[in-house]
Amino acid sequence: MSPVSASAVQSLRARTGVSISAVRDALEEAGGDEEKAIEILRKRGQAQAVKKASRDQMEGAIFAATDGSKAALILLKCETDFVARDAGFRALGQELADTLLKKGSDAQKKLAEDKIPAAVQKLGENISVGESILVDAAVIGTYVHSNNKIGVIVGLDKGSADAAKDVAMHAAAMNPLYTTPDEVPTAAIEKEKEIWKEQLAKEGKPAQIMEKIMMGKEKKFREENALVKQAFVKDPSKTIEQYLGDAKVVSYMRVAIG
Questions:
Q1: Helices 105-123, 20-29: inter-axial angle, 10-degree rounding
Q2: Using a CB cutoff of 8 Å and minimum separation of 24, what contacts does 15-20 make?
Q3: Which CB contacts under 8 angstroms, 24+ apart, belong to 52-57?
Q4: Residue 3 and residue 1: Cα distance in Å, rounded?
Q5: Mean pLDDT of 19-34
């Protein structure tokens, strides 16, 4: 049997969307005939699964796995909440998170390629991996909300896992977009400034004090959107950075559905 060329694999993958390994196997079985290979993929349920890919995947569930200083977070997407609550779907999502944690992203992608087509056929909806996050930090805290729609990983340079989890729970509830005020992008600030300028002009604020007011608004906007400057939900008398003391947030990842 002559080896299948890379161009043939790329061509069939472009037409079907299935994994490279599945495409190569089908082409080898079909003796290089692309149309026969498509029939083989359809009989296996793989090409049929891809036909569903154009449908929106607005639902899904989030899965986490932790081990010592490492944590993994997976968003497994589907079309309806009914499938998102299916036991088989949940088992697949957790297996993907566990694999990412223990074996890395390549192994997780291979597992997804191997198992998602069968899940699509069984559940009748398009399914795919959305976010796939792996974090390594001295101290790790993870939190997945009870509905599996929000997941957070917080990594600290030191401190306790309980504190890291508290911060992760806070982030799940308050949805800070950035870790520190300095991370808020200039583009976001400039967009807000246009709004502030119009508001201040309508209020008739004198030009000589507008710049000072704008600086105050920018500081507030940056702090409101930064995790470490937000008032801690469990104790609003402290900010997150005050609650953590000497510990610093070195990693913050939040994934949400909807």
A1: 70
A2: 16/41, 16/46, 16/47, 16/50, 17/50, 17/53, 18/46, 18/47, 18/49, 18/50, 18/117, 19/113, 19/114
A3: 52/120, 52/125, 52/126, 53/17, 53/126, 53/128, 55/79, 55/125, 55/126, 57/125, 57/126, 57/127, 57/128, 57/130
A4: 6
A5: 87
What CATH code would you report for 6-53?
1.10.8.10
| End-to-end Cα separation, the chain, in angstroms | 49
* Model confidence pLDDT, tens digit, residues 167-176: 999 999 999 9
Q: Please check the confidence at residue 32 and state whether its pLDDT lies above 80.
A: yes
CATH number of 55-136, picked from 3.40.1160.10, 1.20.1560.10, 3.30.479.20, 3.40.50.1820: 3.30.479.20
Task: Name the token pair of 234.
Answer: 């469990």
Q: Is the whole-model pTM more than 0.85?
A: no
Exposure of 223 by Cβ count < 10 A (0-12 exposed, 13-18 middle, 19+ buried)?
middle
Tokens 């806070």 belong to 170
Q: With cut-offs at 50, 70 and 90, classify the pLDDT of residue 117.
A: confident
